[in-house]
Amino acid sequence: MRFLSTLILLMLLSTISSAATITTTQELVQAMQKKYAKSWYKTATFVQKTTNIDKDGNRKVETWYEAMSVPGSLRIDFTPTKDGNGILFTDSQIYVFKNGKVDSNRPFVHPLLVLGFDIYRMPESEAIEKLKGLKFDLSIFREDTWQDRPVYVVGAKAGDAHSAQFWIDKKNLYFVRMIRPAGKDSTQETQFNKYVKLGGGWMSPEVVFLVDNKVVTIEEYFDLHANVNLPDKLFDPQSFATVHWKE
After folding, report:
1. Mind listing the pLDDT tens digit for each residue in 153-189?
2. Selection from 117, 111, 126, 127 nearest residue 201 by Cα
3. Is 109 exposed, middle or buried (0-12, 13-18, 19+ CB in 10 A)?
4. What backbone phi and psi angles, to 5 degrees, belong to 4?
5. pTM (2 d.p.)
6. Which of 133, 152, 174, 203 has the fewest CB atoms within 10 Å, measured from its CB?
């Protein structure tokens, strides 16, 4: 009788383990949303130290103020903020501002906004469509290791360091790495590092950008706040010069 009970328990555990196995991109998106859809922050603000490194190793440091509304909107104010210079990503568009006015505007889906934040607060079907639109081959799915942690990789087979691909931490189900081609023989890579918990979700306070394995930009985030009360007009292109969250 004891043997039978043990056998049934083992079968039950096996079934549970099998049900939790993620083997496709759709299952991965479902798991990410199931884990965080009810807890991930709706808004966030932070101060960003941006270090750009040129080909000679010279560094230029700037301070940016950023605010986001998830899903879909990210506002960047360059300092000094009174000059009215910055960038706004909203409604799948990018707006560049100079002196408080729109200098340029075009359709744009920000891949890092989608992968790092929006994916937790948008319908599954919309998330899948946006990932497809960003040219990730969602049919290619595998497991790997990144910075000594197990990850899921979507878009590239093992050994492929050129095709468009994104990497998701297996345990915490947050985005850690993206690689995209930047021409025939060139690649761009983005890393989300040093994650900290924030407002029922996570944020990476260090973002590193590389071109052909050489670091070109480092972003460091400070003064992180989640679920901040932000006015809707903060993300309205027509109100960029008149509505601010940080002076």
Report:
1. 999 999 999 999 999 999 999 999 999 999 888 999 9
2. 117
3. middle
4. -65, -40
5. 0.90
6. 133
Residue 15 pLDDT grade (very low, low, confident, very high; cuts 50, 70, 90):
very low
Alpha-carbon distances, residue 129 vs 109, 179, 215 (angstroms): 11, 19, 30
The set of long-range contacts for 21-27, using a CB threshold of 8 Å and a minimum separation of 24, is 22/152, 23/141, 24/141, 25/128, 25/131, 25/138, 25/139, 25/141, 25/154, 26/124, 26/128, 26/138
Q: Which amino acid belongs to residue 186?
A: S
Listed residue (132, 172, 171) closest to 154, CA to CA: 132
